[in-house]
Amino acid sequence: MVKRRRLYLLLPLVILIVIMAINAIPVYANPQQTVAVTENNLEWATFIYSSLIIAGLIISTLSYVSWRKYKGKLKREQNNDKMVD
């Protein structure tokens, strides 16, 4: 049973590796095409957008966790009140 599970997990990985090896296309560098890195070439917009997305995800995760903690605390207090009666 365990061997069969391992086979089912490894089989797609092996198939993917074989497909990638078959479709490998060599890419050759051309040293004549050089681009000087200047301030104009830097894309700060993508960095800013990705930073905002990550910050938003962190804030929403922390808000959700604190809300769940608050709800759990209320439920625990209600259960403790019922035990006294």
Automatic annotation (TrEMBL):
InterPro entries: Spore_YpjB. It comes from Oceanobacillus chungangensis. The chain crosses the membrane at residues 7-27, 47-67. This is Uncharacterized protein. Keywords: Membrane, Transmembrane, Transmembrane helix. Pfam families: Spore_YpjB.
